[in-house]
Amino acid sequence: MTLSHTASVSRFGYALSDETRARILLELRGGPATPSELLDILGVSKQLLSNHLSCLRGCGLVASERHGRHMRYSLAVPELGAALGSLVQLVLEVDPHCCESAGCAENGCTCS
């Protein structure tokens, strides 16, 4: 393990330390999305979404691509989606009741 590995893991942890950024990453597991699609799903302000997308791009976790007049955001590498799925499963293994207090069932979350 080198200092650059540590820095990479820290950037990933920082990206996940904010609920909105974590939600963006989890949403992008389903495929690319435009900012307006993410706004509809997340219910945050345009400015907040823009700031978080910029952070995630800076961390190297999200890529953007222009499609005509619109930007589409996706996970920077496909393996990130699998890693996020494994992380969710690990969280449920460590704390199987975490979703009960978060109200996931009421929101249709299956936590998988």
Automatic annotation (TrEMBL):
The Gene Ontology biological process terms listed for this entry are: response to cadmium ion; response to lead ion
Molecular function via GO: cadmium ion sensor activity; DNA binding; DNA-binding transcription factor activity; lead ion binding
* InterPro entries for the chain: ArsR-like_HTH, HTH_ArsR_DNA-bd_dom, HTH_Metal-responsive_Reg, WH-like_DNA-bd_sf, WH_DNA-bd_sf
Q: Which domain of life is it from?
A: Bacteria
Q: Which residues form the HTH arsR-type domain?
A: 1-95
Q: What would be one Pfam family of this protein?
A: HTH_5
Recorded protein name is HTH-type transcriptional regulator CmtR
Q: Which organism is it from?
A: Dietzia timorensis
